[in-house]
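Reopening this one. Same input as before:
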Amino acid sequence: MEKALNRQKVLLQHLVPSSSSSSESALSASICLAGDSAAYQRTASFGDDIVIVAAYRTALCKSKRGNFKDTFPDELLAPVLKAVVEKVNVNPSEVGDIVVGTVLAPGSQRASECRMAAFYAGFPETVPIRTVNRQCSSGLQAVADVAAGIRAGFYDIGIGAGLESMTANPMAWEGSINPKAQSFKQAQDCLLPMGVTSENVAHRFGVTRQEQDQAAVESHRKAAAATASGKFRDEIVPVVTKIVDPKTGEEKPITVSVDDGIRPNTTVADLAKLRAVFKKDGTTTAGNSSQVSDGAGAVLLMKRSLAMQKGLPILGVFRSFAAVGVDPAVMGVGPAVAIPAAVKSAGLEIEDIDLFEINEAFASQFVYCRKKLEIDPAKVNVNGGAMAIGHPLGATELFDCFCYRCPLCCNPIA
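Same output, byte for byte:
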């Protein structure tokens, strides 16, 4: 009984900020409600919350074949940087830092491209920008870095962003490999192709081909339904660009505003016909793996008190963050350990969370993580995931911030 009462107390601390003057029911002033922040009066402690006030992304497009195949990376990032300040009437000069998660491009080149994008978007030279690389979690790490900077008092407003052009920068190892790695099993495993780690997950934890194919079908079904119902419409910034005919070289201007990798008619029977890619008699196929994609996204963060002062909408609260290492041979199981750590950091438990977003790099790791955490499938990736929408590495985890603008959600970020 005591444990239950303590949990209730923690939940109420997250969900019910106190008000010194409002006579409304406390529950009507949920801390996670999207809407007009000026409608509620907060105590100083809640004013210190780090909140997201704007979140925009590009459409996600298939690399080398999709609508962004002829778009430079800086031209993907610029529209979302511009949108997160312009849509909420924040002066770009007020931004204290921009952090961009990105994985594949050479560090100094990508940093310069990001700086160029900031200038295209109207930011003055006084606003700094940097990149961060935590592989597929880079976009989320960028948001966490900005939240930490604001909490530490380094600046008042920041942008966490993510960018990847897998057309311009495909996955490849550059340079030689240190022979010393041969003497360390875990070091060798760091060099495994990602698809091989997926096969390892399936084999080690007993995830069947049927389960993986079914997960892929569900991802496409949910993403198609979300698209059809307009759920993505407000978060996608149209990008005016060009596409080049590979045969004639003819350039055609286009505006891209819809994800182009979703296949609404995908069936388990169709996926069952595909051959395993990484291992003979394996279970990982092109159909139950994430798509290689191009895209970008950005979120604008500040303290709740400043958002209230400016009268800005509060889309969400950055509650907690966790990064936990795992065996590189099964690298995709990270969410199974990072999510509990983030939830615990927020003073909550798994069953307290309404909705989850788990990376769909491969169906094997997605299915394993969902089962390991004993999460109701109806709570996970409710609008589809990377198998359907796409997986631009440096930007993917940033899209967790877009997924749920639901008044009942209070999601620790993991």
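So the earlier flakiness isn't reproducible anymore. For the record, The CA atoms of residues 109 and 172 lie 16 Å apart.
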